[in-house]
């Protein structure tokens, strides 16, 4: 029990650091939960930015039509501003009306409307439909009534476009959107949960790795095996508490219903938990400098989160980055999150892919545990020798 007391004393002395780190991580998870946890039924109008470089009447009517159907957002007409607005989801799409638009339409020529949309956005289909509806309606009346003026044709077009219908989304679509949001929320745990467990375990390990502490422990009546068991036990208890806090926060804020989907998400976090603990114990055994701990946290944990699609969607990352990310456990955890999020029927194909990704995560866990045994100077306390001493 003395090892338990000593470890608790270390955590108590550094409680302010632990609480601050936990609070920041929980806040990040909570922010993602609120951001992606909006119910799919509460669909709002897509946001759009319109750059009208044409002063013709037709272009003005098109801009007005888009403003009535969508939420128009004002941004600067620069490449950098457009890229930032699309990346940070300030707008769903950007439509540019070229200077010759009205003239080409009046001359019955094809006019291009450059449209840029956020990656993997439903608004692309919706906005394309609006543009095609406006142009095809106007061009239909233009062909049917060649004697009418542009003003008369626009009046007919506007009258036709005022007819609206009601769109009802299928229940499977709503469920899929909820699951995809849950997948993004659970995905952020690969950084917040991993980072918090890593910080807690390495904090205690750094204290016990100090030369004077190790020398004192070598004189202790407690065996090396018992010391290792107690030290590992208190770390697992703390990490289990951390895992419970994060999973509870995600479940409560995302309002996930208890079902097969949620069970698969929780099972995936258990695999992440095992990997995080094994990696943290391995690093805690070999590192005795707090600066190196910070470096590993920033480079490996945070870096793998970025390249694996936690903060930036994997679809917009270069293929080379995704291939590099496949050498990190975070990548396979995120693959499971994405897989569960887009699955409505948990058939054999889903199970095969989920088990394969889970096997890779367990393989990482086993590798880190093996490296811990190989690098532990006191590994004799963890296994029995096969060679018996002769008398």
- Measured between the Cα atoms of the first and last residue, the distance is 36 Å
Provide a count of the helices: 16
How does the overall form come out from the CA principal axes? elongated
The description of the largest β-sheet is: 4 strands, mixed
User: Strand-and-helix sequence, N→C?
Assistant: HHEHEHEHEHHHHHHHHHHH
Could you say which structural class the secondary elements and strand pairing correspond to?
mainly alpha
- Share of residues in helices: 55-70%
Provide the residue-averaged pLDDT. 78
Number of strands: 4
Could you name the ranges where pLDDT drops below 50 across 5 or more consecutive residues?
378-391
Radius of gyration: 29 Å
Read across the widest sheet, the strand sequence of neighbours is 2-1-3-4
Work out the strand percent. under 5%
Chart the SSEs and their pairings.
Blueprint: H1 2-13, H2 15-36, E1 47-52, H3 57-69, E2 71-72, H4 79-87, E3 93-97, H5 101-106, E4 115-117, H6 123-144, H7 150-161, H8 171-187, H9 189-208, H10 211-218, H11 224-254, H12 260-286, H13 290-307, H14 319-325, H15 329-341, H16 348-375
């Amino acid at each position: 029990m003395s090892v338990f007391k000593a470890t608790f004393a270390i955590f108590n002395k550094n409680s302010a650091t632990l609480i601050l780190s936990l609070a920041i991580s929980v806040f990040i998870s909570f922010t993602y939960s609120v951001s992606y946890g909006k119910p799919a039924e509460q669909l709002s109008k897509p946001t759009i930015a319109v750059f009208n470089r044409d002063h013709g009447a037709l272009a003005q009517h098109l801009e007005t039509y888009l403003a009535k159907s969508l939420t128009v957002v004002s941004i600067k007409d620069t490449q950098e501003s457009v890229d930032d607005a699309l990346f940070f989801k300030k707008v769903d799409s950007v439509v540019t009306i070229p200077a010759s638009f009205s003239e080409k339409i009046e001359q019955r020529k094809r006019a291009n409307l450059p449209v840029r949309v956020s990656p993997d956005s439903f608004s692309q289909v919706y906005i394309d439909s609006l543009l095609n509806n406006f142009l095809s309606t106007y061009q239909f009346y233009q062909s049917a009534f060649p004697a009418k003026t542009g003003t008369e044709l626009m009046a007919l077009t506007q009258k036709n476009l005022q007819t609206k219908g009601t769109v009802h989304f299928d229940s499977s679509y709503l469920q899929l959107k909820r699951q995809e949001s849950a997948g993004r929320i659970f995905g952020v745990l690969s950084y917040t949960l991993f980072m918090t467990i890593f910080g807690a375990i390495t904090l205690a390990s750094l204290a016990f790795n100090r030369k004077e502490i190790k020398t004192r422990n070598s004189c202790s009546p407690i065996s090396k095996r018992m010391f290792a068991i107690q030290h590992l036990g208190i770390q697992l208890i703390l990490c289990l508490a951390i895992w419970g806090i994060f999973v509870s926060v995600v479940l409560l804020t995302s309002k996930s219903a208890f079902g097969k989907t949620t069970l698969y998400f929780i099972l995936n976090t258990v695999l992440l938990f095992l990997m995080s603990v094994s990696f943290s114990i391995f690093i805690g055994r070999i590192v005795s400098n707090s600066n190196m701990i910070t470096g590993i946290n920033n480079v490996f944990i945070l870096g793998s989160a970025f390249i694996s699609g936690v903060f930036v969607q994997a679809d917009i990352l270069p293929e080379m980055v995704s291939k590099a990310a496949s050498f990190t456990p975070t990548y396979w955890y995120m693959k499971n999150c994405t897989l569960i999020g887009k699955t409505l029927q948990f058939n054999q194909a889903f199970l095969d892919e989920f088990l394969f990704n889970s096997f890779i995560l367990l393989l990482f866990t086993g590798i880190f545990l093996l490296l811990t045994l190989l690098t532990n100077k006191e590994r004799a306390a963890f296994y029995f020798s096969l060679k018996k001493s002769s008398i």
